[in-house]
Amino acid sequence: MNVDIEDLHVGYAGRNVVAGVHLMAAAGEIAGLVGPNGSGKSTVLRTVYRHLRPTAGRVLLAGADLRTLTPGQTARRVAALPQERGSDFELTVREVVAMGRTPYKRAFAGEDRADRESVARALAAVGLAGADTRRFSALSGGERQRALLARAFAQDPDVLVLDEPTNHLDVRHQIELLALLREQRRTTLISLHDLNAAASLCDRLHVLHDGRVVASGPPREVLTPQLLAEVFGVRAAVTAHPLTGDPLIAFDHRQRLPTGGG
Ligand SMILES: Nc1ncnc2c1ncn2[C@@H]1O[C@H](COP(=O)(O)OP(=O)(O)OP(=O)(O)O)[C@@H](O)[C@H]1O
User: Fold this and answer.
1) What is the domain extent for residue 182?
2) pTM, full prediction
3) What ipTM was reported for this prediction?
4) How many domains does the chain have?
């Protein structure tokens, strides 16, 4: 299911922080949103999982305007790992993951076999099968992240929206998460700060700067030293990863450059 965002304007308390954004993810593609702090990545993603309503422009799922879908229809199509991650659930890990099945259930209906299988698959996928009876609130930050990702998988969505999912994860779990997303082959919109992870994972990148998209395309075309200097204010060389051939950004950690804003 492809996602198209057309001329999106959205913000908070009457102030647009995103203005005129166009971006897309083709069906089955992983599209990355990268950009400096405050550039609008989370704000764009919040419109896709309907946490925020656009002030102008449209979000289309397989050509259908999100506004024409009911909340239930949206929940069966789109699952999100938002930046606001609750820590106060007095639920077990399994119960949190099972919340992902809610869009498929009638009120007060119990779990059926398909639900149980879906929850078990999602827990196994994120490596938490053995932790299902633990309290969510007692998990580490990275474990919570993985439980919430499992909840999104259990929702069996056409579109995954992930806001900084590698936040809190150690390097091994980061790599596992990227592998999992590649395997899922779902249409995915993901924001990432780690540009090397984004270069390795994403089919397409959209670079945001001050609430606008300033570059879009395959990572190797988008992530140039010039863009990194202009948008992020860093000096970097871009080479090919010696093991994978992916674009590899080698940052100069001794120097920063003036930026145009942001
Ligand atoms: N809940 C909110 N209320 C008011 N302003 C907000 C809110 N969330 C974000 N903003 C503002 O909107 C702008 C874009 O923020 P957003 O969180 O979308 O950026 P981001 O690119 O995701 O940043 P980061 O990389 O720091 O997560 C910023 O100026 C931010 O201060």
Assistant:
1) 3-256
2) 0.93
3) 0.98
4) 1
